Fold:
Amino acid sequence: MNMKKRAQWRTDLVGYAFVLPNLIGFLVFIAGPFLFSLALGFFQWDAVGPMQWVGLQNYIKLAGDSTFKASFLNTFYFTFTAVPLTLGTGLGLALLLNRPLALKTAFRTVFFLPNIVTVASIVIVWQAIYHPTMGPLNMLLASWGVTDLPTWTMDLNWAMPSIVLMSVWLNAGYYMVIFLAALSNVPQTYYEAARIDGAGGLKRFLHVTLPGISPTIFFVLIMAVINSFKVFDQVMLLTKGGPGRATNVLVYYVYTQSFTKYKFGAASAAANVLFLIILIVTIVQYRNQEKWVTY
Amino acid sequence: VKKSISFLLCLILILSVTMVASAQSEKVKLRVCIWDNEYAVIKATEAFNAQSDSIEVELIVTPWADYTDKLFTTVAGGDNVDAFYFRDQAPFYVYADKGMLAPLNEYIEAAGVDMSVYGSYADQCVVGDQVYAMPYRGGCNYLFYNKTEFDKAGLPYPDGTWKWADLREAAIKLTHGEGADKVYGMFFQPWTWLMIFPAMQEGVQIVTDDYTCDLDNDLVRKALTDYRNYAVEDKMMPSIEIVKAESMSIGNMFSTGKTAMTIAGEWYPGSLNKKIEDGTFKGEWGLTYVPCDTPEYVTQGLATKGAVNKNAAHPKEAFEYMSWITGTEGQKAIAQAGSMPAWLTDENKAILTESMGFDEETAKVFFGKVKMCHEVVNLSAAYVNEILDEEFTLFLVGSQDVDTTVTNCVTRINEAIEEAGLKG
Structure:
């Protein structure tokens, strides 16, 4: 028996040894900073002097901070527009490419391409697209007879839609690839049965395709929502939260609190609020999945 | 005997090599942070290393864009880097307030450094009653003009007595072309202080030393309105939308001939001369005093500073290095690198005049002692710049009127000052 236990222990040890590097990385770079940030939300700290316990003061101040309120609302605005548009576009592209098509692989590559290019390069291209007078977007609108052309990233009403549009273009290809994999797993027999029963294209999509890929939709929805709440690169590089505070989102707020104002306690409190929002939204999504996800 | 002499010679050789090696290894190694395009410091540090027997400086060079964030994480993280330079003004006051800088009074006294040679720049290095930095590069803004554009328009060059109305009139006449061939009469870098520069010349301070916001003023309203009208009504400068969309800057506007005039600092002649050398700037440029409506001439200027880390591994040597850079020899090296030294001796002026190719009149303007106004130089700077940028931009894109803009600025700045506990 002892020998058996020892042998088992040895086997386990090999397993632990494989897991250990990743575990150390997780503890040092994710779990540790996360717990530190949770605690830091209750302190006033400038990263230099001693930490000062302030209880809920950071959170109370957040509630009265007009910039935080603006960034909070902007984050929701971004998430609730970017996520459906990104997933809709991703799914649409996947459906188009999931049929016999010439140059299918080339199209797939083209749509996925934005994901392997750095956001900084992409922003330069989109800056040109959004140019108020010489940008192709406004030129196109002008050719259609639109007279009151928006200035996009410098327009109070159009700045956030500009970020959303760029983000949809940036991310749709990634989700398209995932949807394509899911679509290929829906058994063809289901479609044949539906066709025999007289179901048209729309009905087959609603009653066969969507339920068939619902676990994937659920997965990408969770991922897209989390990523949208964490939006930063596009904002930092394209608008720096402006004009005014029109595109100031929560992560950008956390950044400016930390590295412009050196208020790491307040920044952590804001980050914790963001974590809480993501947690609640994810729990709600998990709870509701039974109603529409078919495994 | 031969063997003995050979042995003795070998012994002497080995001993002398060992002694040289040990002397070299005794050099104190300093680590100093700088951003990548600050050639003046890079060249002056090379000169320092070449002449010093006891100290060797290793520059930790960071790209300009990342420098401020990286410096903060380095110093706040407890790194014992010995000294560093400030790219921006606001962090200096924050660092001093947070005790991240070594106080230099004792060192200055012991070394007999005369801070009065730096004039008003010396005051910009003091927080409370302590000196926390040394000014190594002077700061002063001028009106730069493209002589070719003035000749084409048949206008006389600005003579240094211009008021803002003169600039407006000339800039309108100098604006021509469309699309890619458009040449603006004037380009202002979208710095918030520059948007209300005429008001600052009249004595308006954005936030005073006792943390009072001074912006609720008709001079500020007028300056902002004029600034917007330059683009919207006169169209003699690009609108803020175009400036941001094309990431326009002094460098890519004036140097490429896309504007006939601009306001830029003492650092710009060196950059222009380089562009002339490599053929990217064709034509001739001149500089003169900025437009000013007040009887006494006022321009904007702040020194660029270096400081010693509170946690420096070698604070004494770090001060020795910093006082060399800001002293006679270092300032000469700064001038030779094409930057304006904070300590303007006749010798430094001559070096810079020669290296920049200034004529007598330009040199007189460039080195003239004038009254300076400046943006926020206290702890509120970290909050103020962001607020001004947000509110001024909303006004410039037409999303709010000037009264709302000024009211919002004052309210938000006062709230930030109160929340940070800066007043009293």
Remarks:
- Chain B touches chain A at residues 68-69, 72, 76-77, 94, 98-100, 179, 239-242, 244-247, 382-383, 386, 389-391, 393-394, 397, 399, 412, 419 (CB under 8 Å).
- The first helix of chain B runs from residue 2 to 25.
- The CA atoms of residues 48 and 330 of chain B lie 7 Å apart.
